[in-house]
Amino acid sequence: MNSGINLITKKEDVGLKEKKKVKIARIIAGCALGITVFTSIILFILYNQLQIASIKRDQESAIRNMTILREKSAKLDAVNDRVKSISDIVKKRKNYIGTINLILKQLPKDASIATIDLSSKAIDLRITSSSLLALNIFLDNMIGLAEKKELVSDLTIDGLSLDAKNNKYNLTVSSKLL
């Protein structure tokens, strides 16, 4: 065989140019690695700082909203408590509107109620009219209610007077409510 044909080059034969190229490639790779690491660390720090600031703003906003909602909730609870108390009172009290409406139905057109004193057990009325007939009709109607045991159990005439100035009769009546 021929010793002049050698396809494998020896290390000593590697040229100076190739060594420089490898050295430059290593330096460039190291610099690129360093720049990448430095850039990554800087971006990581900036991202975390911006994210923390954003989270703090969101947290402060949420705390403000919660404070406002807590105040509204407290007001709503107070209003609900008042409404419940009022509802309980309305449920417990007697329906005076129905009582007054029934008494007004007994009143003739030319008579009017001057005063009314209504309690849970009794009612006192002062009826005025220019006619004794209207007062009589009212008394008959109220006696009918007492006989039917509809609204009142008894009826007492406390007084009958004449107001000469106004030419009006005043009838004062008291009764026990059922």
Features:
alpha+beta; 178 residues; Gyrase A, domain 2; single chain; 2 domains
Description:
By secondary structure, this protein is α+β, with helices and mostly antiparallel strands. It has 2 domains: 80 residues; 82 residues, General secretion pathway protein M, EpsM (Gyrase A, domain 2, 2-Layer Sandwich), CATH 3.30.1360.100. The protein is 59% helix and 21% strand. It has 3 helices and 4 strands. It has a 4-stranded antiparallel beta sheet, covered by helices on one side. The protein is rod-shaped. It starts with 15 loop residues before the first helix and ends with a strand.
The H-and-E topology, N to C, reads as HHEEHEE
What coarse outline follows from CA principal-axis ratios?
rod-shaped
- Separation, N- and C-terminal Cα atoms: 142 Å
| Overall structural domain count | 2
Give the arrangement of secondary structure elements.
Layout: H1 16-92, H2 96-106, E1 111-118, E2 122-129, H3 132-148, E3 152-163, E4 168-177
Antiparallel strand pairs: 1-2, 2-4, 3-4
Brief summary:
This protein has 178 residues and is of the alpha+beta class. It is built from 3 helices and 4 strands. The protein has 2 domains: 14-93; 96-177, Gyrase A, domain 2 (2-Layer Sandwich), CATH 3.30.1360.100.
